[in-house]
């Protein structure tokens, strides 16, 4: 977000941080480990990961919209640094489209987690020589792996450990300058109300994640939320003389029930109907235990008459690691297939060591398994 410019529409959360030119800049000091030690934690994260981290650490639900496009080149510099004065920080956030009050809110929300690490910031955090803190991280508050308003309550009460507030070098005490820039009005309101802090952070995080370059159109109809019922991990396998479809179905936010029975109705593409009773395979939780999910297994045996069979090459990406789907058609069998045959054999000669998913197209609909296969793992065809 820190690279965004509302005037010309450039920069924003577009994954340009993946380019070495950006990560090599002095303004971007990040350590990939348990803690992220950049001064402004959210700015160097990608949108989907931000949602997962915040919500699974007890934070609020954040409205998420799709449609982002990865940058094809590095963005211009612009990440605020702790040694800069208040006017520089206000100007940086104004360039990104945020007011001074919104700057305070974003920094407070982002600094509910984590801290500053010694290695990239030796002028802010000294070496601690602590066996329980081997990275020498000075935390923003006492609950640094859980989302709450302690970053505000401890700041207002004067008990904060935040190294950007009570650091020995006042030049780098940027949080102190930012938080106090409105007479502590915003931080006092956050300290007085955990609910206000959470709801404000949900809105500010969503705005931050939606800061994208001009021309990128995010989904507008509604935010992306989990489907109440969703098939998962579906796999097609040849079992004897038939194809077997196996997988699971996830029921969102549903507790386990010993008396619950789930039926699935089947409508075959070649005619005929049927049904199957799904067995329970367990219950999981998400978003720091806020939601549950009940899983039901499905296993259906059915014939298949594909109009097309193909290979999908695994792990093909462009120069900035965007996935590229490369499909290779498998020729149809040369010999006519008997009307009473249980299956036909489609074959292709592989001359490389790539891995592939196997896919098929039936009635104009394409699908593929998620088990990858390599030429070296497959036995040779025999007559």
From TrEMBL:
Q: Which positions fall inside the Plant heme peroxidase family profile domain? A: 47-250
The record's Pfam families line, in alphabetical order, gives: peroxidase
Which keywords belong to this entry? Answer: Heme, Iron, Metal-binding, Oxidoreductase, Peroxidase
Q: Which domain of life is it from?
A: Eukaryota
InterPro entries membership: Ccp1-like, Haem_peroxidase, Haem_peroxidase_sf
Q: Name one GO molecular function term.
A: heme binding
Q: Which EC class is this protein assigned?
A: oxidoreductase
Q: Does the keyword Iron apply?
A: yes
Q: Which Gene3D superfamilies match?
A: Peroxidase, domain 2 (1.10.420.10)
Q: What is its EC number?
A: 1.11.1.-
What is one GO biological process annotated to this record?
hydrogen peroxide catabolic process
Please report which protein family the annotation says this sequence is part of. Belongs to the peroxidase family.
The protein's name in its UniProt record: Peroxidase
Species annotation: Mycena albidolilacea
């Amino acid at each position: 977000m820190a690279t965004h410019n509302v005037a010309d529409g450039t920069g924003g959360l577009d994954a340009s941080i993946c380019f070495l030119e950006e990560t090599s800049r002095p303004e971007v000091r990040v350590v990939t480990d348990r803690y992220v030690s950049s001064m402004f934690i959210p700015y160097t994260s990608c949108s989907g990961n931000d949602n997962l981290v915040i919500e699974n650490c007890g934070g609020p639900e954040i409205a998420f919209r799709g449609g982002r496009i990865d940058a094809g080149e590095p963005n211009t510099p612009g990440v605020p640094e702790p040694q800069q004065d208040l006017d520089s920080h206000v100007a940086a956030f104004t360039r990104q489209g945020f007011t001074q009050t919104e700057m305070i809110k974003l920094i407070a929300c982002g600094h509910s987690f984590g801290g500053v690490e010694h290695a990239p910031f030796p002028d802010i955090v000294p070496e601690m020589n602590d066996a329980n803190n081997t990275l020498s991280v000075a935390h923003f508050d006492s609950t640094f792996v859980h989302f709450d308003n302690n970053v505000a309550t401890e700041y207002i009460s004067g008990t904060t450990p935040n190294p950007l507030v009570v650091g020995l070098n006042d030049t780098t005490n940027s949080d102190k300058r930012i938080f106090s820039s409105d007479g502590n009005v915003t931080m006092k309101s956050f300290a007085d109300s955990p609910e206000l802090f959470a709801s404000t952070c949900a809105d500010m995080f969503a705005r931050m994640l939606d800061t994208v370059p001009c021309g990128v159109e995010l989904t507008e109809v509604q935010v992306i939320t989990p489907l109440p019922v969703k098939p998962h991990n579906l796999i097609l396998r040849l079992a004897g003389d038939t194809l077997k479809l196996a997988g699971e179905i996830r029921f969102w936010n549903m507790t386990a029930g010993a008396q619950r029975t789930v039926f699935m109705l089947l409508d075959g593409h070649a005619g005929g109907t049927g049904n199957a009773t799904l067995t329970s395979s367990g219950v999981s939780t998400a978003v720091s235990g806020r939601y549950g999910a009940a899983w039901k297994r499905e296993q259906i045996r059915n014939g298949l008459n594909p109009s097309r069979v193909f290979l999908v090459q695994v792990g093909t990406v462009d120069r900035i690691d965007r996935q590229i789907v490369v499909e290779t058609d498998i020729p149809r069998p040369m010999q006519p297939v008997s009307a009473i045959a249980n299956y036909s054999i489609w074959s292709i000669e592989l001359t490389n060591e790539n891995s592939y998913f196997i896919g098929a197209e039936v009635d104009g609909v394409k699908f593929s398994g998620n088990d990858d296969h390599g030429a070296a793992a497959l036995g040779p065809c025999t007559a």
